[in-house]
Design brief:
Elements (H helix, E strand, L loop, with lengths): L5 H8 L3 H8 L7 H13 L7 H6 L5 E6 L3 H4 L3 H16 L3 E6 L3 H13 L5 E4 L8 H8 L3 E4 L9 E4 L2 H15 L4 E5 L5 H16 L6 E4 L4 H12 L7 E4 L2 H13 L9 E5 L3 H5 L5 E4 L2 H16 L7 E2 L4 E3 L19
Parallel strand pairs: 1-2, 1-3, 3-4, 4-5, 5-11, 6-7, 6-8, 8-9, 9-10
Antiparallel strand pairs: 10-12
Helix pairs in contact: 1-2, 1-3, 2-3, 6-14, 7-8, 9-10, 11-12
Length: 347
């Protein structure tokens, strides 16, 4: 993997490197048509003309990039990304590397950010998060030849290396545990539709429920926020056939759901069992403490950073399966309350 260089522009334009330098720096020595052709090629391959001098020197940025397509306010309340970044930073700082973070609105803006970072020599590599099915960012990063590690998978990453965990196995373990407790009406409050890990969890949930003969189960989409998690929970618990167990795709929604259940006068876990994905200190601070899917998220981030630094150094890297989340039972799960027998009709 290598950065776009003046030599690349010269080769595509069919001119000398000197002519490219003249064009990029606005100096005389090339015709206007040649200048415009060179500038167009520079934009196409992600080379920013304002960085020509640094490009010629071959200097590295000693920084890596992370662009996130999420509202900035969610980062301050979602422990997963804070723990992931802490692991990334621990590994980067030990190598005197910095992390450049930017919030973006959509995929096209994110791709433009990668092109600008790479062309302006601001970063030496990037992490790609929140992988989508048929993600348009993957071929764009392949085209840039930008060192990349995808945090997510498996699959759907093209030639890009990834680090991923087995979402399906963790989901199956959770459902089997709840069924062993006696639950039959189980609902999953999922994350953002379209994210690859959301789709993997949804398919796994549907399949394990079918295999276990559960016919009162479903997945309800949400957006990871406490507000939406509370709204969805309130609607589910107000239904005639309310679930006896809820599985949330993150800890923030699970904690909001616990508050709603208590607000509605339900006892957790006697009336309702709750499981949170991605354990965090928050899960142990509420009452009752939440049963959760636990894994070492800072280590996950550190492993991703280690692989990206290896790619930047020119070492071959391959996709890597990290630790699978395991279930940690706590006070929020128990056998469901027995259904009272029907009252005999008066004669």
């Amino acid at each position: 993997m290598k950065r776009p260089t003046i030599a690349d522009i010269a080769r595509q334009a069919g001119v000398s490197k000197g002519a490219v330098s003249y064009a990029l720096n606005g100096q005389p020595g090339v015709s206007e048509s040649t200048r415009q052709r060179i500038l167009a090629i520079a934009r196409e391959i992600g080379f920013n003309p304002n960085s020509a001098a640094r490009a010629l020197s071959g200097a590295t940025a000693n920084a890596v990039g992370l662009a996130l397509r999420r509202p900035a306010r969610t980062l301050g309340v979602e422990p997963f990304f804070m723990e992931l970044i802490s692991g990334v930073e621990a590994e980067l700082s030990a190598r005197s590397y910095a992390l450049t973070l930017q919030i973006v609105a959509d995929a096209q803006t994110e791709i433009a950010v990668y092109r600008r970072w790479w062309g302006e020599r601001r970063i030496d590599g990037v992490f790609l998060c929140d992988l989508r099915v048929d993600d348009e960012r993957v071929p764009a990063l392949e085209e840039l030849n930008l060192p990349t590690v995808v945090i997510g998978g498996p699959g759907h990453t093209g030639r890009l290396a990834s680090i991923w965990a087995d979402e399906e196995a963790a989901l199956v373990e959770t459902v089997e545990y709840l069924v062993a407790l006696g639950h039959r009406r189980i609902t999953r409050i999922g994350g953002l539709p379209g994210l690859l890990h959301t789709e993997i969890r949804t398919e796994a949930f549907t399949e394990v429920c079918r295999r276990l003969g559960l016919d009162q189960t479903r997945t309800v989409p949400s957006d990871y926020t406490g507000e939406e998690g509370a709204r969805v929970t309130r609607r589910l618990l107000s239904s005639a056939e309310r679930p006896t167990a809820l599985i949330y795709d993150n800890d923030v929604m699970a904690i909001a759901g616990l508050a709603v259940a208590q607000e509605m006068g339900l006892s957790v876990p006697a009336d309702l069992s709750i499981v949170a994905w991605d354990d965090s200190p928050l899960c142990q601070l509420v009452h009752p403490p939440l049963t959760a899917l636990s894994r070492d998220i800072p280590a996950y981030g550190a492993h991703a950073a280690r692989r990206l630094l290896a790619a930047i150094a020119g070492d071959p890297i391959t996709s890597y399966q990290d630790e699978t989340a395991h279930l940690t039972p706590r006070g929020s799960t128990a056998p469901p309350r027995p259904t009272p027998p029907p009252t005999p009709s008066a004669i």
